[in-house]
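Our preliminary data section would be incomplete without showing what the modeling component actually yields. Below, a chain of 241 amino acids is followed by its predicted structure, encoded as tokens that our downstream tools consume directly.
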Amino acid sequence: MIWQRKNPFLYGRERAEVESHFPDLHFIEEHGFVFLRGSFPVLYEGRPLDRYTIEVQLARNHPAELPIVREIGGRIPHHSDRHVNADTGIACVLIPDERWRLWPVGESLLGYLTGPLHSFFLAQTMVEEGEPWPFGQWAHGPKGVFQFYRELLDTTELKVMIAYLACLSAENPKGHWPCPCQNGKRLRDCHSAEIKNLRRNISRKDAAASLAILKTAGVSAIELTEAKPLANSLCNRLNHR
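Predicted structure:
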């Protein structure tokens, strides 16, 4: 059953909160999906700076999965440099694996709109004006996944990332497995607690998707990866804003 039928109380609360805060965004139901469409304001230091015409498609199992976001006013080029998929026009607002940092499961839809989505469009406005991406950024595609796990795991070794992701995507990692840190110890004697903590934050589905991306890309995920200080990453800037 789709979420708005399964949990009408949640639907009513989400709708009331969002429409109260964003009167120019409207909830529309089409083909079993809930969409938000309309004008989205970008603020800077509490004052209006810009507006975008957007469409936000909520997942059928909202809020378990991330919304699909498109800018539908024709302003943002469909290009990886602007974090918009060239084929679909879907905005890459955040990497699913880092959702727990920026919009944890259980936080309101309003929190998504005023948090990571607002930061995404504020960055787009500043890039239009010739400024660098203001919060730092992950690269697009496999390089972005590599950058995220480089920062999260504090390693530049692709094989270590792949080993960690294999544990995170496994149904039930065993203590006798080799530890993904590659030091030769068993998991139970090494990074077992770290793996358990990561599995609480990163879903098996998202870990499996990232594992497939890195395996397919191989060393090309590393090539041309930006050598930025980790403190400049988008997640760190947003976490401490």
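Confidence is low (pLDDT under 50) at residues 226-241. The two ends are 37 Å apart (CA to CA). Preliminary results of this kind motivate Aim 1 of the renewal.
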